[in-house]
Amino acid sequence: MVKKWFGLTILLLTILTGCGDQRILEKAGFIETESFDLLPNGQFLISNSVPITEPGVKTQRKVLTTEAKSSKEAKVEFARQTSLTLVNGQLRNLIFGVSLAKRGLWDQFDTFSRDPSVSPHAKIAIVNGSASSLLAKDFKQHPRTDQYIDRLLTKEAKEHAIPKVTLYEFTRDFLDDGIDPVVPVIREDRDNISLDGIGLFKDSRYITKIEPDDALIFGFLRDNVKRGHLDVELGQAEGENELVMFNSLTSRRNIKVKRTDSGSPEVEINVKVKGSILEYIGPRDLSEEKNRSSIETMMSDHITRRANKMVKHMQMNRVDSLGIGKYVRNNMSYEAWKAMDWEQKYPDAKVKCKIRFKIKDTGKIEK
Fold first, then answer.
1. DSSP 3-state assignment of 23?
2. Residue 198 and residue 151: Cα distance in Å, rounded?
């Protein structure tokens, strides 16, 4: 009997303990997007967007803004601006103004990484301008700006226009000595939000970016692409401009590292790309094999030139955004890697790209 009552007592205590941290859904404010900007006085301008679900209220969200020294201090200030209990469980996007990104983001990421209420899958983006102004603005065709940003980043990542970057991926690359982090860049474009390239980081500082037109080529060099589209102006043939658009692009990347007699590594990035021609403007008859072969060669040469130029740009800015260092590191002992000082070797390392295009089909054509 004593054991029975003892068991019931433990069960009741367990149940009552679980009731100590009740959160009523109607009284909770789920932060979905949070923005950070650097102010001239060294403090942060922090904003967050909270959906409003109260019946009869026309506004679909509330934007809270404050100046603070940290995100935790801002959360205390936000609590004074609303009757809702603010929680981070639905935080999906963290966006940062470019001025703060240039100073460095690790202090913010370190705080969020330690917070168990923040998902490591929260997306990261840089705003070319003020992140707070972008988050606060209402776009006519998109009732909720936070949702608009989230869907834009998701869609562009699926189409390989930008790499998928979350809190987890940025932290992983930041802590890896063989690769530097990257973050998509967005900007306000009149009545829309548009992609403004891919930000390249050294440690946690924004250094430079890849332009939107070169984003897919960056994708070829950084990873395997499963779906993408690309349009290229090849020049003139028979007095006419040649424009070709590919879709359903897939690529396979292979990186080879060779050691020279001097001990310096030589790196080859070989990429095979296959795709369908969705549109062609020019004088060639694509039903002929020789013309398809000619376009494959021109595309390969054109994209290879742009890829090599991109690598030189990254080396000049001392950002190893492709993770070349990881392949060099895997090609030698740990002691040799540490003795090499890859950060100093990287800008002068010999890196050669070769892109090979293959046309799968030219679409449905009837004559």
1. coil
2. 17
